[in-house]
Amino acid sequence: MIWVLVFGLIALAGLIMLVSYAVWLAHKASDLFSELEMLGRRAEELADLLSQIEPTPQLEGD
């Protein structure tokens, strides 16, 4: 009968580890999405800056 308790404790420990891993993974995903959002903002800023550049005409002799 003690084996039921042992397996129950092992299952409980596994469940706790699974929940802990899920919480950790959710935090990592949240960090990743915030970094992707920042990257998108930086790309928009770069596009705005690049749109302000006016190319100079090339001379035909060069």
Description:
It is a single chain. The chain has 62 residues and is mostly helical. It has one domain. 81% of the residues lie in helices and 0% in strands. It has 1 helix and no strands. The longest helix has 50 residues, at 2-51. The model has no long low-confidence stretch (mean pLDDT 94).
In short:
The chain has 62 residues and is mainly α. 81% of the residues lie in helices and 0% in strands.
Task: Determine Rg (CA atoms, Å).
Answer: 28 Å
Domains counted in the coordinates: how many? 1
Work out the helicity level: over 70%
Which stretches are low in confidence, meaning pLDDT under 50 for 5 or more residues running?
none
SS-based structural class? mainly alpha
Overall geometric form: rod-shaped
List the total number of helices: 1
**Which sheet architecture does the biggest sheet show?**
none
Mean pLDDT: 94
Find the count of extended strands (DSSP E, 2+ residues): 0
Secondary structure elements and their pairing?
Elements: H1 2-51
State the main characteristics.
single chain; 62 residues; mainly alpha
